[in-house]
Specification:
CATH class of the largest domain: Mainly Beta
Strand content: 35-45%
Shape: elongated
Helix content: under 10%
CATH architecture of the largest domain: Sandwich
Mean pLDDT: 89
Structural class: mainly beta
Distance between the termini: 152 Å
Radius of gyration: 38 Å
CATH topology of the largest domain: Immunoglobulin-like
Number of helices: 1
């Protein structure tokens, strides 16, 4: 039986439409992700930093004259993997004033002999001393070798924005050293004189220096946990290293104070006359301080003839 011509044509057209739909369904796919994913933060640079312990600490506020480091990671949206300098063409930080900083890829920390714990992109900005204070809007833009791009912008919350603040006042560096001399126990004729302040000491007896060192930043006295050394130096080249401890030091006697002390047993033949001395203290963080006597003759440490 032969089918009508129009019915035959309709069947053929219908089959063509179905085939086209099936072909389209089989060949179409979701559009590949194109925008690179960026992660970034800002940390304290070593430039101009007052406290070395602050280096690499996260911050959004940076004083004039110091430095900012941007740490950046870029991820491929297709794979989720971080992208290094083999897949990225550029990573650039742009400030609102038009300055740009090109980031480089590498391992961190970067100090010799320190194990690398992470790899990322980084760049730095040394803030001029006269740079205006206030927020500094920035963006980070990355471009891949195959032409894809991505951008990072800060959370727009005022305290979190990169901000330049006024330069910090210099931290006091000179330690405050206070010292006096008292009569030692060695060779003393009258035990009641021990620890009595004096500037005159007979040949054959002894001098004890009592020393306190203060941190100029806090005003607090410094112990052997913060000081590296306290040394008394005489004009003749002799030096005496002080020790820290509680005083009086006699067994069973309550401690009333803590300070540094050093002693000198004066030889019986030591020349009489004034003996200028200085006391120098050095902290574990490299600060120093010096004590010198008041230059008034009767007050100077003086060796007198043996009694």
């Amino acid at each position: 039986m032969r089918l009508p011509r129009l019915w035959t044509v309709g069947v053929i057209v219908g089959l063509i439409v179905v085939a086209a739909v099936v072909a389209t369904a089989c060949t179409s796919s979701p559009k590949a992700a194109q925008a690179l994913i960026l992660q970034a933060d800002t940390v304290v640079s070593s430039t101009g930093v007052k406290n070395p312990a602050d280096i690499c600490v996260q911050s959004s506020q940076f004083p004039q004259g110091e430095g900012v480091v941007w740490r950046i990671k870029v991820y491929d949206p297709t794979t989720g993997n971080p992208m290094d300098n083999s897949t990225l063409d550029s990573v650039v930080v742009s400030l609102k004033d038009g300055q740009t900083f090109t980031a480089t890829y590498g391992g961190h920390p970067g100090q010799p002999g320190v194990p690398v714990t992470d790899y990322f992109w980084s760049t730095a900005w040394s803030i001029p001393q006269n740079y205006p204070t206030g927020s500094v809007v920035y963006t980070v833009t990355a471009k891949s070798n195959d032409g894809r791009t991505g951008t990072f912008a800060e959370f727009n919350v005022a305290p979190s924005l990169l901000t330049v603040v006024a330069a910090q006042q210099p931290v006091a560096q000179t330690l405050t050293v206070d010292a006096n001399t008292v009569i030692g126990a060695e060779g003393v004729k009258n035990p009641a004189d021990i620890c009595v302040q004096s500037s005159r000491f007979p040949q054959g007896e002894s001098v004890v220096w009592r020393i306190k060192v203060y941190d100029p930043a806090t005003g607090n006295p410094m112990s052997n946990s913060t000081l590296d050394s306290v040394v008394v130096s005489l004009k003749d080249g002799q030096t005496f290293t002080a020790a820290y401890g509680g005083h009086p030091g006699q067994p069973g006697v309550p401690v009333t104070d803590y300070f540094w002390s050093a002693a000198w047993s004066i030889p019986a033949t030591y020349p009489t006359g004034s003996v200028p001395y200085t006391v120098t203290a050095k902290s574990k963080d490299g600060r120093t301080g010096t004590f010198a006597e008041f230059n008034v003759a009767p007050s100077l440490l003086t060796v007198v003839s043996a009694q």
